[in-house]
Amino acid sequence: MRRTLFCLSLAVLQFVSDPASGQTTAVPDSIRAEGAPAIPASLSAALNRYQNIRSASFQGWDDTKPRAVYVATRFADTPQIHHVARPGATRRQLTFSAERVLEAKPRPKHDQFLFMADEGGAENYQLFLQDRTGGEPRRLTDGKSRNTSPSWSPSGELLAWSSNARNGRDMDLHLAAPADPNFHRIFKEVAGQWNVADWSPDGRGLVAEEYLSIAESYLHVIDVATSQVRTITPRRTDPKEPPVAAGDARWSKDGRSIYYTSDKGSEFRRLARYDLSTAAETWLTADVPWDVEGYDLSDDGTLVAVVFNEDGLSGLRVYLAATGQQRDVHKPPAGQISGVEFRADSHEIGFTLSSAQASSDVFSMDLDKSDPLMNVSPLERWTESETGGLDVSAFVEPELIRYPTFDGKKIPAFVYRPAGRSDAPRPVLIQIHGGPEAQYRPGFLGRLNYLVNELGIVVIMPNVRGSAGYGKSYLKLDDGVLREDAVKDIGALLDWIAAQPYLDKNRVAVSGGSYGGFMSLAVQTTYNDRIKAGIDVVGISNFVTFLKNTQDYRRDLRRAEYGDERDPKIREFLEHISPLAHVAKIRTPILVVQGRNDPRVPLSESEQVVAAVKKNEVPVWYVVGRNEGHGFAKKVNQDYLQAVEVLFLRKFLLGEGG
C-alpha cells in the first residue's frame, strides 16, 4: 500500500530544442506536456545518477532449492522477477514483461511462480504462471478484470484469489487448478471487497478478509468444497459501536488456530491467536504500543517473527508461539523491514530492508544464529543494488519533530536538512503523503535526495491527522466533516517553519500525490499568500466528481472515508471543501501531474483544475502520462517528470532563471 514502483519504458522519443542553450533534450512520446519549457540537457545530465538508483525486494523463498530466493528488481526497462541462488549470487531474470511486475508468489513444491502485472497503470491486475526454467508465461485470468490476493494451497495444486470479473464491482473469491485449464470456479460470491488471506494446512479451508475501510474489516473461514462460511471476528450490530479492524490472517501450522492482527480493545493493531475450537483470543503483543505491520510463522510452529511500526521505523521481535514469551534476537539496522517470511523447515527469515542511507535490498537472518555472543554476522545480504555511483552514506538522515497545531495536538514530521552549514535560511518543500490513511516513513528517499543534496532544499514530510501508525483515534481525526482540520495542520507547519531560523518562510513550496494532491491543492487555496508554488500529482480537485468517476470497486471504500455524496448535506459539504470551489485563490505557479489511465483519481480531476487555474493568469505546467495510471511507474516518464519538477522548483521556489 505503500510505495510506487519505479520502472523504465522504451517509449518513442522526440527531440525538442532547448531555447536557452540550443542543445536538445529527449521528451517521451508517452508524455503530453503543457506549459512546461524544454528541459536543458545539462539538467538531464545532472539528474542521471539519481535516476539510476536501483532497488530489490524479497518475493519469497524457492522451496525446491536448499536455499534460494525470488526477488523483484529492475536492470533494464521495468521491475521484473529474478532468481538468486545464494547470498550475493547473480540475479537471473525470469520475467521479461514490457509492463511492471508487481508481485511474485512461488508455487509450493514446483519450479514455478505466479506473478501479477497490469497494463498502462490501469490496475486491472492479471495473474500469470511462469516456469523458473524459462518459457512463456501462461495467463490464468481473463485479461480484463481486476485480480488480487493470490494464494497457493499447501500442495501447490490449487490457486485462490479475488476478482471483480462478475460485475466489475464486487471482489468474489475464485479457485483454479493450473494443471487443469478447464477447472475454474467462483467458490464464494460476495458483496464488497473480500481478499484471500491463507489456506488451512490440510488445504480444505481458507481464511478471507472482508474489507470495509481501514477502520473496519472482518475475517471469515470458508470451506472450499461447500463454500460454507464461519465468521470469526463478529460484526458490530449497533452502528454506535466503534468499528474494529482485523486482517493479515495466517493459519497455524497445526491447523487449530488462526493468527491475525486487530485493533480490538486497543489503539494499535496487535497480534492475536484465535482458537478455532474454543473461539478464545490470545493477544501475543499486548505490551507493545505500536502497530504490527507484518509477521510470519515458522514451519515447526514454534516461532513468530513480528515487525512493528515504531514511530515510523521498523522494529523486529520474535516470540515463542506456545507461550508468547519474547526471544532475544539480533536487531537489524534501523530502517524499513517488509515481506518477512520463514524459509521452509528452518528458523531463517527473509525480508526487504531499506534506510535513509541504503536502497531496498534483500536480506536473511537465521534466528538460531542471531546470538550476539557468536562471532558471526547474523545478517546475510542477498542483493546489493546499484546507486548510480552515488555515495549513499552521505545522504542525510531525517530528524523526527513534533510541532503544535491549532487544537494543541502534536503533529509528527520528518525533516531532511542538507548537510553542511548555511548562513542563509534554506528554502523548504513540504511533501504530503497520500492515502489519506498512509504514513510517511523514513526509508530511502531515492531521487528526492537530489533536492536536498544538490539544491539545498529542506524537505519536510508531515504525518497530519488521519495518518496511519499513531493509533486509530489519530486515524479518525480527519474523517467526514473534520477533513479541513488536516489542512489546518499544514497551516500550523507553516507557523513552525516561520519560527525556525534556518528555514526561509518566504520560500516554501508544497507538493503531494493522490490524497496528498488534494492536500497540496487545499494548501494552495487556503494559504496561497504563504507559499511560492505548488505541485499536485494525481490529486482530488472535487470530491463529488471524484466519487462519481472513480472505479466502481473503489467507490464505497472512499465513501467510508470522505462521506456519501448521495446525502444532500454531505454533498454540500464536500463541494465546499473541494479545492475546485476556491481555485480563484491560487495566485502562485502550479504544476499538475496526471496518469491518463488512473483508475483511482481519474484524469478529469486534473483536467478541470488545470482549466480553472489557467483563468487566474498564473504559470500552469501540466504533465500527463499517456501510458500511466495512479502515478508514474515507467522510468522514462519518471525521468522526464523529475526534470520538470526540478526545473519548476528552481524557477519558482529558488528564483533561478528569472
UniProtKB/TrEMBL annotation:
Claim: Oxidoreductase is one of the keywords in the record: no
PANTHER family: DIPEPTIDYL PEPTIDASE FAMILY MEMBER 6, SERINE PEPTIDASE S9 FAMILY MEMBER
Broad class of enzyme this protein falls into: hydrolase
Signal peptide residue numbers: 1-22
Annotated spans, Disordered: 134-156
Full protein name: Dipeptidyl aminopeptidase BIII
GO process annotations (BP): proteolysis
InterPro entries named in the record: 6-blade_b-propeller_TolB-like, AB_hydrolase_fold, Peptidase_S9_cat, Peptidase_S9A, WD40
Chain ranges passing through the membrane: none
Biased composition (Basic and acidic residues): 134-145
